[in-house]
Specification:
Number of helices: 9
Radius of gyration: 35 Å
Order of helices and strands: HHHHHHHHH
Helix content: 55-70%
Shape: extended
Structural class: mainly alpha
Length: 219
């Protein structure tokens, strides 16, 4: 009896193993479209173009707006020229809008109503820090002149400039803090002191965005 049962179990296991094998065969014969991602892998050039495309339609490498073309077709010289001209026009338009202070064209560090108030506060006053760059140019000329009489005054002048900039930074902080409290109560002025001071250190005609107010104007 025991021999028959063991033999029957062995035969049952063999039949089960033989019966399960045909069920695994269809899994191996699935088409690649079902087992994979279901779409062809794009070419490297096309993937790079889509990856580095900015929101304005130009590439981060600065090569301009990619022209619309069918895959596998090279652009003609005329199409390349038109694409470069369009990208140059977009850059010029964005630069002019940035200088005018339009919000959409500004860099992330310049956006927001608090940053605009800080810029207007700095631009509406003549500050000692505004002449810092001119003083540095004079000091550099004096440093390379190799005149011992002039070199003795360079170190004291540098110390005086640093003290003036520190005092001006403290005044800018107080002015911006008061202005924000009046116009945007409850807003934090974190980072606005350094932002205003860095703008005050720039020469007025080279500030970006360009000043929207003149010295002495009320904000």
């Amino acid at each position: 009896m025991f021999r028959r049962s063991s033999a029957g179990a062995t035969e049952g296991q063999a039949q089960d193993s033989q019966g399960t094998q045909p069920q695994e065969a269809p899994a191996k014969s699935k088409p690649p479209a079902q087992t994979g991602k279901g779409r062809p892998t794009p070419k490297r050039s096309q993937a790079e173009a889509n990856r580095y495309r900015s929101i304005t339609g130009s590439t981060t490498s600065g090569r301009g707006r990619p022209a619309v073309s069918t895959p596998g077709r090279k652009l003609t010289p005329e199409e390349k020229t038109k694409a470069r001209a369009a990208a140059r026009s977009d850059r010029d338009r964005q630069l002019q809008a940035m200088r005018r202070g339009e919000e959409w064209a500004l860099q992330p560090r310049d956006r927001g109503p608090m940053k605009k108030l800080a810029r207007d506060y700095v631009d509406a006053h003549r500050r000692p820090a505004e002449f810092y760059m001119y003083a540095l140019i004079v000091l550099l000329i004096a440093l390379f002149s190799r005149n011992k009489a002039i070199s003795t005054y360079i170190s004291p002048l540098v110390i005086v400039l640093i003290i003036l900039v520190a005092i001006d930074g403290f005044v800018i902080r107080r002015g911006i803090q008061k202005l924000i409290a009046e116009r945007l109560p409850g807003s934090s002025i974190r980072g606005l002191t350094i932002y205003g001071l860095m703008r005050a250190l720039q020469i007025r005609r080279f500030r970006v965005p360009a000043p929207q107010v003149s010295p002495g104007d009320k904000i």
